[in-house]
UniProtKB/TrEMBL annotation:
Keyword Signal: yes
Pfam families: Peripla_BP_6
Domain (Leucine-binding protein) ranges: 27-370
UniProt lineage: Bacteria, Pseudomonadati, Pseudomonadota, Betaproteobacteria, Burkholderiales
Source species: Inhella inkyongensis
Protein name in the entry: Branched-chain amino acid transport system substrate-binding protein
GO-annotated biological processes: amino acid transport
Length: 380
């Protein structure tokens, strides 16, 4: 069938389409998390949170500086390894991303921060809680969760005051996150008048804890704190039960996942495990998190593990700064990002202080009932 348009008209239409295509700016946002290794389920959870935000922004037809933009997610795997983390960071810098969301772990986020700082690229971590992350003097570093000083200290007080821990044992995995939160927990216990009867350590890939648990059993702890991730906490809990240690297990956001009951393989009774997630909403604001969980499940056929909502908010905070600055150029939107105040996210209100830390960061305390996380209270 012949075209009904004159050749000149066809050429004109083609040029208009080409001009429209060229007018759409590509904005590349990097994401880094452990999508392989023992924390892969958490890293994939994070990446899906980023993809959800990107897809929604593209569906809205966001404009920056009067231009239509298309957001593209550039995802990298750091396997929770600091060396791989800095390599992934450099790869994102070389690929000219305009901003980075990540990394998941403090141990990878801290060294990667220098790579992004040297390149002038903003980095927002959804989950790195070690205080050092935002205390390196970099203007490009931000986080949307409370740090270990708040998290560990709160858990330490909770162990003594609410769980009535008279003899508290502490174990950490010797990562920047695990050791950092365990140190702050121990300070919180002592400040509350509690007694730490033993301090042991393992590593983030360990599966056998018989030696350290046997040592702690002799000290008869009624609360055991673990600084590390859920992939280690699950087997640790199973072996605690196997040795007859009846203490409650408490930990930070690293163990506070939907996957923990499965990893513990039936070794979790109701009210035997307590944890805190760096973030939290109360009252009417809870509906935004509930709605996010439903939309996430419908889109990915998966349950939110821990950090996906914080990744989602981090992407949206970054893009909001670009829109307000009228530019996706890091040098132009970075000052606007740093002044973020009162951004309403699904995880609560986000404002940054001079270091890039979230102001008035919240914590949500949880226990597990019937194999599901059960929120107890929000602490600020």
């Amino acid at each position: 069938m012949k075209s009904l348009l004159h050749p000149v008209a066809l050429a004109s239409a083609f040029l208009c389409l080409s001009a429209g295509a060229q007018a759409q700016e590509i904005v590349r946002i990097g994401h880094v998390g452990p999508t392989s290794g023992t924390a892969a389920h958490l890293g994939k959870d994070n990446e899906l949170g980023a993809r959800m935000a990107i897809d929604e922004l593209n569906a809205k037809g966001v404009q920056i500086g009067g231009k239509a933009v298309k957001f593209v997610l550039v995802a990298e795997d750091d396997a929770s390894d600091p060396k791989q983390g800095t390599a992934a960071a450099q790869k994102l810098v070389d690929s000219k991303v305009q901003g980075v969301i990540g990394h998941l772990n403090s141990g990878t986020s801290i060294p990667a921060a220098k790579v992004y700082s040297d390149a002038g690229i903003p980095q927002i971590s959804p989950s790195a809680t070690n205080p050092k992350f935002t205390r390196q003097g970099f203007k490009t570093t931000f986080r949307v969760v409370a740090d270990d000083v708040h998290l560990g200290g709160t858990l330490g007080r909770y162990a003594v005051q609410q769980l009535k821990g008279k003899a508290v044992a502490v174990i950490d995995d010797r990562t920047a996150y695990g050791q950092g939160v365990a140190d702050e927990f121990e300070k919180g216990v002592k400040a509350s008048g509690g007694k730490v009867v033993g301090r042991e350590f393992t590593n983030d890939k360990a599966t056998d804890f018989s030696a350290i648990l046997t040592s702690l059993k002799a000290k008869k702890p009624d609360v055991v704190f673990f600084g590390g991730m859920d992939a280690v906490a699950g087997p640790l809990l199973r072996q605690m039960k196997g040795l007859g240690i009846q203490a409650k297990l408490i930990g930070g956001d690293g163990i506070c996942s939907a996957q923990l009951p499965k990893l513990a393989a039936g070794a979790m009774g109701d009210g035997e495990v307590y944890c805190a997630e760096a973030g939290g909403v109360e009252g009417e604001a809870k509906s935004a998190m509930v709605d996010f969980g439903k939309r996430f499940a419908a889109k990915f056929n998966a349950e939110v593990q821990v950090y996906a909502p914080y990744v989602y908010d981090a992407v949206n905070v970054m893009v909001a700064a670009m829109v307000k600055a009228g530019s996706s150029d890091p040098a132009k939107y970075l000052p606007v990002l740093a002044k973020t105040e009162g951004f309403k996210g699904v995880t609560g209100t986000i404002s940054f202080d001079a270091k890039g830390d979230i102001k008035n960061g919240a914590l949500t305390l949880y226990t597990y009932t019937g194999g599901k996380r059960d929120a107890l209270t929000v602490v600020r």
